[in-house]
Write a structure and sequence with these properties.
Helices cover 74% and strands 2% of the residues. The protein contains 9 helices and 2 strands. The protein starts with a helix and ends with a helix. A two-stranded antiparallel ribbon has the order 1-2.
């Protein structure tokens, strides 16, 4: 009799862990394939997000939005609505449609984040996953640079692996707040914290080679908010 509830809990935990693992794996996989803004490059992530939200709904893991997340949710919803309203005056309906779909994908990603932020252990697992993949990305880029590969740059800006400087900066800077937070976590062993700090510094340095002003502003805003 006790085995059934334990098994059910195990299935629920596995299902709850699936969305961020799926999204992180697909996102990093697309990044190292040279992903960009073309629909065929971001549609797999959109499908993964839809599956993630479905899994979260099935296991009853979609809670009420926390008050701290409301400003972000409202601002993102307003951006999606404003972009959709631009159909009234756009010169290219096809390009506008794709833009609205990309924004909707970002809104879905934010929904997954809000769900996990409401559960401390799930939020910690997601942050740890982000930190790990950020360290992998920064390390791979650094190896590429140390190997003297000229194809890593377009002009003076980092263009590998995504071939788009702003996205390359985002690839290593999105996980940076998680790396910094874990590097400052007192329960971790000093050697582990030192390694996390090393990769945080490496990610910061590698991201700077992209020379992305937008990413720099976003990073400062994220660190202030964190």
């Amino acid at each position: 009799a006790p085995a059934a509830p334990a098994g059910a809990r195990l299935v629920a935990v596995a299902a709850l862990a699936l969305p961020p693992v799926m999204l992180l794996a697909v996102g990093v996989g697309l990044a190292f394939r040279g992903g960009g803004v073309a629909p065929e490059q971001w549609q797999p992530v959109a499908v993964g997000l839809a599956a993630s939200l479905l899994v979260l709904a099935v296991v009853g893991a979609i809670p009420q939005v926390q008050r701290a997340a409301l400003p972000m949710v409202v601002a993102l919803a307003a951006l999606v609505l404003w972009s959709a309203a631009s159909f009234a005056w756009t010169a290219s309906r096809e390009a506008t449609f794709e833009h609205v779909l990309r924004l909707a994908m970002l809104a879905a990603a934010a929904a997954v984040g809000v769900v996990y932020a409401a559960r401390p252990r799930a939020a910690l697992s997601l942050a740890a996953g982000l930190a790990l993949l950020g360290a992998i990305a920064a390390g791979a880029i650094e190896v590429k640079l140390l190997a003297g590969s000229t194809e890593a740059f377009v002009g003076s800006r980092l263009s590998w692996p995504i071939n788009y400087a702003n996205a390359d900066a985002a690839l290593v800077w999105l996980p940076l707040p998680a790396l910094l937070a874990l590097a400052a976590a007192q329960p971790l062993r000093p050697l582990m914290r030192a390694g996390l700090a090393l990769f945080a510094a490496l990610a910061l340095a590698v991201g700077m080679t992209a020379q992305s002003r937008g990413a720099a502003i976003a990073l400062v805003g994220a660190l202030v908010a964190a």
